[in-house]
Structures are given as structure tokens and as C-alpha cells.
Design brief:
Alanine/glycine:cation symporter family protein; 470 residues; two-stranded antiparallel ribbon; transmembrane helix; symport; 4 strands; two-stranded antiparallel sheet; membrane
């Protein structure tokens, strides 16, 4: 059974990551598909990734929201839920994979791509909130499938929107089974404890995730709001310890990361190879352009789509620009990316340079990262499932059952196969999502610029006029 699954994954990956020959260089079409809109929207929205951060922090604090506005979460809870889906093993194992396959230069491109990914995340979340559905009982349904359905219907293409939204929802069902989280969390736990029963580990993880998934969005908001800050502190604590004991080597490590991005010494095939690897891992880390985090952000309590779009802008900054970059510097300083180890073992070896017990600290962080991501993606997948099969209790419970029983498979697959499957699903999801962003680009621009103008007006006027900006 596993052999058949591996064969199917290989064929899917070959189709998705088709390479084209441009200027004498082989480059995957999907890399261009994601890189171009990041650059386009960064310019089209006037570098909102830089000038909109202040407004994003103000909106995160809930200064322009009230309990009467539609939504099931505060902006902070929506952000932590989205971060729980992105600040995961893509930041720990993903960075290690980037270094081992693309060389230190891949980390530089992850950093750069993280900045432009901020703009794309802002654009897709703003659009997602504009076209979300708020039910009479207060429940919110949102995500790229609803953007496509409702947005195209508003333009007179209802049937096309319904179909393309369905295509996205179908693809999201595969992306919503984040097997790499189970795979790499098991790898680290097995490494430090000697536990060699992947199926049992997968069942235990599935049972814990099931408790959150079964109890719905309320539990999800509470769990992620507490787990995400905790897991970030645990992981970054270890990273800072590595950097502290190797402080004198940090400048040289940063220099190597920058020079390797341009000198053509990357393991994956020169500077372009480093860029391609960095692009793939940055997309997996930030999920910008994939549309998945839109599902979480559409639950935010606000009636201003752009306000949550600016909150979402902070997401790639935290998970890719900050966490991934610091982790990459730590692993380059430790030098553990060179050798026979792969994936999470590279990070574990870097932690071991501090103390023998430090890999146990990483195991705790890895478990929390994997757990929170699986919880968030359980909710994402449920929204896609219900778009396709309805919102009846039978549909909801059938999805929860299928999701939970699929998770143990991730612990038994080879790392390479897991990466191929996840990357393939993610990039296929990006196709209809990016198309929607291009179609509705003028609306996105109006929403964001109009919101920023209102905030400038509110800052110039007395506080009692703020209500006019809501």
C-alpha cells in the first residue's frame, strides 16, 4: 500500500513541478507562478508590506473593532490561528531542508521572499473578508472558495465561480492533511527518546488533535492563542542559545548566507538553485498565495476587510522573515546542515551543540508546532469539505473522522515523499487563488487604500470620531 502511494506521489510531483528553459536556466513554472504576483502586488499596492505594518499592529490590538461586528474571533486570535498553521515545522524542518538542498544561499532568498510574501498575504486576506459569508446565526464561512464563488457571482459569472471555488476546495482537502507535521515531529521524538513505533505515535497525535477539531472553532481559538506564543518562545529560546555561545561566528555565517545566494555554490545548482529551493520553502513556511490562512482570518471580528488584511501582513514577517531567518543563521553557525542527516535531524544536531539535553527542548517545540498546525489545518479542511458537501452535521462529522484517521500515515512515509505530496497540493491550490487575486486586484487596492485613508483621518480627529471609521 505504501509503495503504491509513493508511486502516485512521484507522478503527481513530476507533473506539478514541470520545468521550463528560460535564458539557459531550468526553472519550475510554479516558482514563477508564485514569485510574479508577490512582486506585482508589492508594487501595485505601493509597498504596503513596509508602510502598512504600523496599521497592522494597531488593528491587531482591536482598536477599530467591537463585539457587534461580524466574526467569531478577535483579530489576535485569528492571527494566532493562522500562525499556528504557518509557524510550524516549515520553520524548523523546512529551513533545515532548504539549507541541505539549496545551501546557505537558500536562507537568504527565504528572507527576501518573506518580505514580498507579506504583500500577497495582505491582498488575499483582504479579498477573503470582502467576500466571506456571514450566516444569520453568526457563523462565518470564508476562504478562497467563497472568494471565487461570491466574487465572480458579483461580476455575473456565478456558475464559473461556483465551479472554480469547488476546484480550490477539492485541492485544499489534500493540502489540509499536513503529513510533514506528523512525520517530522515523530522523527525528533524518536531521535531523542528511541521510540520506534511511528503508527502508535501517529495515533496519539491524531487523538490529541481530534479533541480540538471535534470541539470546533471556539476550542481552536483558545488553544492556538496559548500554544502559538509558547511554542515560539521555546524554539527561539534554543535558537538564541546557539547564537549566544557562537556569537563571534554570527557575522561570518550571515556573510556566507548572503554570498552563497549569488556565487553559484548552492547544492541545488547554483544561485538559481538556491532561489528555487528558498522559494519553495518560503511558500511552505508563509503559505502566501496558497490561500489557506484566509480561512482563519475570515473568522476575525471586523467589518473592514483591509483591517484584517493588514493584520495578516504581519504573519509572513513573524514566521518567515524572523523565525526562519534566525533558525537558518543558527544552523549555519553550528554547521550541521553539512553531512548525512536531513530534515529535523539537522536542527536537532544544531541544538545539541549547546547541551546534550537541548534536543529534548526541540522535541517539545516540535510537538507543539506539529500539534497546533494540525489543529488549524483540521479547521481549514473542514471549511473546504463543507463547501463541497454542505454544512450538515453528518458532513461535518464525516470530515472530522476522515481527517483524524489520515494523520498517522504521515509518521510512516519517507520524508522526501511527504515533501513532494505537500508541495504538490500547495502549489495546485495556488493556481485558482492567484487567478482570483489578479481578477480582483483593483478591488483589493481600493479596500486597502480606503481603509488607510480612514485611519489617517481618525488619527487627526478626536477619539469620538473613530466610530466613523468602522
Amino acid at each position: 500500500m505504501i509503495d503504491i502511494l509513493n508511486s502516485l506521489i512521484d507522478r503527481l510531483s513530476d507533473m506539478v513541478f514541470y520545468k521550463t528553459h528560460i535564458f539557459g536556466i531550468d526553472i519550475e513554472l510554479v516558482v514563477l507562478w508564485l514569485a510574479v504576483p508577490m512582486l506585482f502586488f508589492t508594487a501595485y499596492l505601493g509597498f504596503i508590506n513596509l508602510r502598512g505594518m504600523g496599521a497592522g499592529f494597531r488593528a491587531l490590538q482591536g482598536k477599530f473593532t467591537s463585539p457587534n461586528q461580524p466574526g467569531n474571533m478577535s483579530p489576535f486570535a485569528a492571527l494566532t490561528t493562522a500562525l499556528s498553521g504557518t509557524v510550524g515545522l516549515g520553520n524548523i524542518a523546512g529551513v533545515a531542508i532548504a539549507l541541505s538542498t539549496g545551501g546557505p544561499g537558500a536562507a537568504f532568498w527565504m528572507f527576501i521572499i518573506g518580505w514580498v510574501a507579506m504583500t500577497l498575504k495582505c491582498a488575499e486576506v483582504t479579498l477573503g473578508l470582502k467576500y466571506r459569508e456571514v450566516q444569520p446565526n453568526g457563523d462565518v464561512r470564508g476562504g478562497p472558495m467563497y472568494t471565487l464563488k461570491n466574487g465572480l457571482a458579483a461580476k455575473g459569472f456565478a456558475k464559473i465561480g461556483l465551479i472554480i471555488g469547488g476546484i480550490y476546495a477539492f485541492l485544499a482537502l489534500f493540502g489540509a492533511i499536513p503529513l510533514i507535521q506528523v512525520n517530522q515531529s515523530y522523527a525528533q521524538v524518536a531521535h531523542v527518546t528511541g521510540f520506534t513505533e511511528p503508527l502508535i505515535y501517529g495515533i496519539i497525535m491524531a487523538a490529541l488533535v481530534g479533541l480540538v477539531v471535534i470541539n470546533g472553532v471556539g476550542w481552536l481559538a483558545r488553544v492556538t492563542a496559548s500554544v502559538v506564543p509558547a511554542m515560539g518562545l521555546v524554539y527561539l529560546g534554543g535558537v538564541f542559545a546557539i547564537l549566544a555561545i557562537n556569537f563571534e561566528q554570527v557575522p561570518a555565517a550571515i556573510g556566507l548566507i548572503i554570498s552563497d545566494a549569488f556565487t553559484g555554490e548552492a547544492a541545488a545548482g547554483g544561485a538559481i538553485g538556491a532561489f528555487v529551493v528558498g522559494m519553495r520553502r518560503a511558500v511552505y513556511s508563509s503559505e502566501a498565495g496558497i490561500g489557506s490562512a484566509v480561512i482563519a482570518h475570515t473568522q476575525a471580528r471586523t467589518d473592514e476587510p483591509a483591517s484584517e488584511g493588514l493584520v495578516a501582513l504581519l504573519e509572513p514577517f513573524v514566521d518567515t522573515v524572523v523565525i526562519c531567518s534566525l533558525g537558518a543563521i543558527a544552523m549555519v553557525v553550528a554547521g550541521t546542515y553539512i553531512g548525512d542527516v536531513e530534515g529535523i535531524e539537522i536542527t536537532s544536531a544544531a541544538f545539541a551543540t549547546v547541551a546534550d539535553w537541548f534536543p529534548y527542548l526541540l522535541a517539545v517545540a516540535v510537538f507543539l508546532f506539529g500539534f497546533s498546525t494540525l489543529c488549524a489545518w483540521g479547521f481549514y479542511g473542514q471549511q473546504a469539505w463543507c463547501y463541497l458537501f454542505g454544512h450538515s452535521k453528518a458532513a461535518i462529522w464525516s470530515y472530522k473522522f476522515v481527517y483524524v484517521i489520515c494523520l498517522p500515515i504521515g509518521a510512516m512515509l519517507e520524508l522526501g515523499q511527504v515533501i513532494k505530496l505537500v508541495d504538490s497540493a500547495f502549489f495546485l491550490m495556488a493556481i485558482p487563488n492567484i487567478i482570483a487575486l489578479y481578477i480582483f486586484a483593483p478591488e483589493i487596492r481600493r479596500e486597502i487604500f480606503g481603509y488607510l485613508d480612514k485611519q489617517k483621518l481618525s488619527q487627526r480627529n478626536p477619539p469620538n470620531e473613530v466610530s466613523q471609521t468602522r
